[in-house]
Design goal:
By secondary structure, this protein is α+β, with helices and mostly antiparallel strands. It has two domains: 236 residues, Glucose Oxidase, domain 1; 38 residues, no CATH class. It is 19% helix and 19% strand. Strand 15, helix 9 and strand 16 form a beta-alpha-beta unit. Bound molecules: acetylphosphate (UVW). Acetylphosphate binds next to loops. One of its GO terms (molecular function) is arylformamidase activity. One of its GO terms (biological process) is L-tryptophan catabolic process to kynurenine. This is Cyclase family protein.
Length: 354
């Protein structure tokens, strides 16, 4: 395969696992890291790290995203269960006793607890070195040819045909799913140190917290950041006060160059948080129009430049409290996304075992 790029973005590690790699730093979750995770299992207790997938609910936190809508499989106005026989069989034999229900769901894959694949965000960057910026993703995969074209063959028949159906022919979530996602995780409890106020946590503050809690992040660790945001959201019982939520909770400071450098140098395998974006999203500042920059710099740094998948809106509060009470911060994390070819994100029901 021809080299996809003549120049890689500054601060990136394209090609670290080969020019065609689509899994990024999850490659660092080696069999040894899985065994390290298993060694953290001492009590056999498990925690579900997912919100119910219909949370946030109400007004979406992200206007692009739609909440799950479930549909029964209907025939003649009745679901299969109501009809009392299994109508998927060729002969609708009234003597058959099977009662079957199927259902269908329509939702944004990144509505609630989710993984972002490496196809989720790219950047406008001149990878060819010809002076023209194109839309590029990790390892130089292109928008249009590799990722997110609204493909002619994707126009679905039926009621949802008006939704464009992008598809990641490269970097899709299946590249993460097909290896499973299981390894040693480390929980960093920002909420304990900062409370639930809105604060962008940079390198200095993070190092202070790691030191105070005696935490060492090592190569291949899956790093979970507890801010308390998902717990606040859950307490709103599917009627989120979006204005309040936008003013609450900490997140990593994507504008702190030393923090970004640490993320790369420590060689963590993925970054996960219980807030909507891992980083604290700062509204675009129009006064800076003309200066080319990302709105989500940590997304750019992780997904686009360094192949670090992000987990968002996980539910970490119970686990954080349990670990703190025992002066622990590591656990075995099992969190495979859906193996859905071409998807740019996925709901996930992660499990922590301690
Ligand atoms: C965006 O909305 C860009 O993404 P995320 O859900 O990853 O924060």
């Amino acid at each position: 395969m021809p080299q996809r790029w003549q120049q890689a973005p500054p601060g990136s590690h394209w090609g670290e696992f080969g020019p065609d790699d689509q899994r990024g730093r999850l490659n660092l979750v080696t069999p040894e890291k899985v065994l390290q995770g298993v060694a953290e299992v001492r009590e056999g207790r498990t925690f579900c790290l997912s919100l119910p997938l219909d949370v946030p609910g109400g007004q979406s936190l992200n206007r692009r995203r739609i909440a799950p809508r479930r549909f029964a499989v209907i025939r003649d106005g009745q679901s299969a269960g109501q009809q009392g026989f299994c109508w998927s069989y060729d002969s609708e034999d009234p003597d058959l006793t099977d009662v079957v229900n199927d259902d269908v769901v329509l939702m944004s894959l990144q509505y609630s607890t989710q993984w972002d694949s490496l196809a989720h965000m790219g950047s406008r960057f001149d990878a060819d070195g010809d002076g023209v910026a194109e839309m590029v993703f990790y390892n130089g995969f292109r928008a249009g040819s590799d990722i997110l074209p609204a493909r002619a063959d994707a126009a679905a028949a039926g009621t949802f045909a008006h939704y464009p159906q992008p598809r990641a022919d490269a970097l899709g979530i299946e590249h993460i799913a097909e290896h499973g996602v299981q390894g040693r995780a480390v929980l960093v409890d920002l909420a304990h140190h900062i409370g639930r106020r809105r604060e962008a946590v940079g390198y200095d503050a993070l190092m202070r917290i790691l030191e105070a809690d005696g935490i060492q992040v090592e190569c291949g660790d899956l790093v979970c950041i507890h801010t308390g945001f998902a717990d606040t959201l859950l307490s709103m019982n599917r009627q989120p006060d979006v204005a309040y939520l936008h003013e609450t909770g900490s997140g990593l400071d994507g504008n702190d160059a030393r923090l970004l450098q640490w993320i790369v140098d420590v060689r963590l395998a993925s970054l996960i948080a219980d807030n909507p974006a891992v980083e604290l999203v700062v509204p675009s500042v129009r006064a800076h129009a003309g200066i080319r920059r990302p709105r989500l710099p940590l997304h750019e740094h992780c997904l686009f430049k360094n192949g670090i998948p992000l987990g968002e809106l996980w539910y970490l509060t119970e686990l954080a409290q349990w670990l703190r009470a025992r002066k622990r911060h590591r656990f075995l994390l099992t969190a495979p996304p859906l193996r859905l070819p071409g998807a740019v994100g996925s709901p996930v029901t992660p499990v922590a075992t301690v």
